[in-house]
């Protein structure tokens, strides 16, 4: 695991008048944001999270020490972080934290460099890797077929993207070379 912190959520605003907040959770199961113990802000404040409900795209929660709407409003936009060493190790070699994939070098099955992973998205049908390179952006489903090798220790992964994705990338490379 890489050292540092992981962003687990962001306060999107207050909820009600008793200090509850609306949280955009970045955990696999949104309510699990409360399961990691106290979370820290960029300026070092620490909050214990207690989830009280759900609303459209967010969880409703109480943060320790926040007792009224004014205090909750002041937290709007506040990021909540967790120290990496607080996380359990992945269960097996096939389980990865998204943050561990960000920044990995990407090559195709022939060894050609394609760029680096810049984001991991979940649009509802499974995780998708966003890869940016000199030729532009490539989106690859994060499946064993499309990503046969993930080498965290080596800082790379190998992709076998659909042919149409490579064809679009090759066209973009050619246009870039031709100055178009």
TrEMBL record:
Gene3D superfamilies: PRC-barrel domain (2.30.30.240), RimM (2.40.30.60)
GO cellular component: cytoplasm; ribosome
Pfam families named in the record: PRC_RimM (PF24986), RimM (PF01782)
Domain (Ribosome maturation factor RimM PRC barrel): residue spans on this chain: 99-164
Quaternary state and interactors: Binds ribosomal protein uS19.
UniProt similarity note: Belongs to the RimM family.
Name of the protein in its database record: Ribosome maturation factor RimM
Organism: Roseospirillum parvum
């Amino acid at each position: 695991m890489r050292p540092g912190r992981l962003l687990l959520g962001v306060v999107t605003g207050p909820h009600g008048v008793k200090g509850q907040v609306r949280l955009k959770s970045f955990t696999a199961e949104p309510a699990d944001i409360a399961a990691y113990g106290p979370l820290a802000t960029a300026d070092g404040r620490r909050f214990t999270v207690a989830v009280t409900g759900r609303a459209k795209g967010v969880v409703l929660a109480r943060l320790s020490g926040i007792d009224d709407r004014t205090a909750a409003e002041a937290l709007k936009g506040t990021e909540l972080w967790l120290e990496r060493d607080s996380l359990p190790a992945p269960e097996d070699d096939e389980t990865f934290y998204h943050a561990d994939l960000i920044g990995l070098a990407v090559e195709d099955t022939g060894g050609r460099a394609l760029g680096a992973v810049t984001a991991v998205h979940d649009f509802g049908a499974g995780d998708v890797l966003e890869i940016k390179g000199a030729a532009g952006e490539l989106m690859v489903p994060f499946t064993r077929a499309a990503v046969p090798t993930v080498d965290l220790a080596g800082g790379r992964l190998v992709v076998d993207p659909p042919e149409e994705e490579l064809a679009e990338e090759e066209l973009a490379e050619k246009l870039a070379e031709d100055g178009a």
